[in-house]
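Worked problem 6 (solution included).
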Amino acid sequence: MVLTLLPALASAETVNALYRVTSSRAEFSSQPGGTPVGIIPVWTNVEIMSIEGDYAKFSYKGYNYYTKVRNLEKLDEPDYICSSWAQNAVEAYVTTHGNSDPSSYKKPITRAEMAAMLVDDIMTKIRGWFQVWQTLPGVISDTRLDQIMTKEDNNNIYWFQISRLLYWGIVPAEKFRPNDCATYKEFTDALVKIVKYEVVNRNQHFSKAIIDSFGVGGDTSPNAKSRRSKLYSLSRKLTIGW
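Solution. The predicted structure is:
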């Protein structure tokens, strides 16, 4: 009996870092060495999860793919966003807000910070501060809201934004956990509910599939910790029109 020796698979090295596509022919496939299913546009930023031999595993438009390492270069600290349009949006925001720290956009955010982005960067821009503070209807009573809001919520700098998400029914009427890291699923669930509350979906059914089509990049798995850059970019994409 003749034994055929298969080539050993390279062990995966965890990376979790941002890289930029530098090749105009950066083909990608669903597995290392597999049949190419597309080409990543040159200068696209991607978050590399691991490197396996000559191939790098990355997330792109909500799916995991592989491309050759030679197609990429590692980014320095200032390159903190995972798609070109999102990077431009965040850099414009940082430029016009002198107190903004660019490096902070690469860091995960808390659920309280998520509430601030949803209320301040979406609802207040659409409705104005007076309606947000005074007139928008809720789905629970003030008494019920007072029962849900914990001491931890009320002592948080974003206590008002937390209370609005609970009052409007954007998040479940339960303990908010303001200091926990916000996950990608928590943010996108809230984003979909914000649109339904506002009825600003332009005669389309706003859904996770539409959010995925924005192609913000990075880790979009449900429990992934959400970075400020990604959430701000999605918020801006929604408010400037899709």
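Discussion: Confidence is low (pLDDT under 50) at residues 1-9, 77-82.
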